[in-house]
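Example 3.2
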Amino acid sequence: MLTSLVLISSLAVTLAEPVEYVVDPAGTEVYALVLKQGLAAGLAHDHVVRAGELTGRVVWDVDQPSASEVRVSFDTASLEPDSDEMRARVGLPGNLSERQRATILGHILDEDQLHATAFPTIAFSSTAVEGAGPEVVVSGALTVRGVAQPVSAPLQVVPGPEGGLVASGSFTIVQRAFGYRPYRAAMGALAVQDPVEVVLRIALREP
């Protein structure tokens, strides 16, 4: 009996308590790959669109990931399309002018797309975390344009600097699921594909 109590006490000591983190902008990056289609696709560009500063709160339980919670968001208007740095990093050819980037951003934020003036925030709130060790799947509701849709993201969560964590991975969304049609022009001859791949690296630190 005494031995059992000692073992239970020892186990309780070794189990880590859930830790609350905030997003560290310095090590965080989220971007989307928006690919072209249509008969005149050769006249258009594939795009990489980076989100601005991500904010949020994460409660992470290393011993029991299913008890973890993730809530993050960023301003829709903070999106930045096609910087030279990002295009080179993801392997997209060519650079765009400031005027081209401004036009693309205008289309992205327009009323028939993300409608940033009416829906200023894009947010994610988790409903489940599954897995063990560094490999987990975080599921939850992604809210875009005021519409919440379920998404699941396979992530690798590893220790970061100064006791923090770094989560990285990717997932795919379908634009029509959020209540708008992907951008198109010239009667659809110039258009972007409905699926969009979202790539993320989120650094977390204790407050």
